[in-house]
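Narrative of accomplishments. A recurring question from our advisory board has been how the design workflow behaves on a single, concrete structure rather than in aggregate. To address it, we present the structure tokens for one chain from the evaluation set, followed by the sequence designed for it. No filtering or post-editing was applied between the two.
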């Protein structure tokens, strides 16, 4: 059973995959414009995003971290923020 869960997770989290992310604040990567609200991008609703690059795993929880492209921003996303 564990192998099956791992396989499903690997299929879900692949570079270039379109995912839905939950509403909330996401840390921006790169330069923020003067008109922006700082280093975070807030989504009031669930939003589509594309997985860009796997960045690593959290050392305590083993949750993966990705860079994603959503609404013209490059952001950081934890796998548990995908719905």
């Amino acid at each position: 059973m564990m192998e099956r869960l791992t396989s499903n997770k690997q299929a879900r989290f692949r570079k270039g995959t379109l995912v839905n992310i939950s509403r909330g604040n996401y840390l921006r990567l790169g330069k923020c414009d003067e008109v922006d609200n700082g280093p975070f991008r807030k989504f009031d609703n669930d939003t589509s995003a594309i997985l860009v690059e796997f960045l690593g795993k959290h050392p305590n929880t083993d949750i993966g971290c990705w860079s994603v492209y959503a609404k013209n921003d490059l952001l950081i996303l934890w796998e548990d923020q995908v719905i």
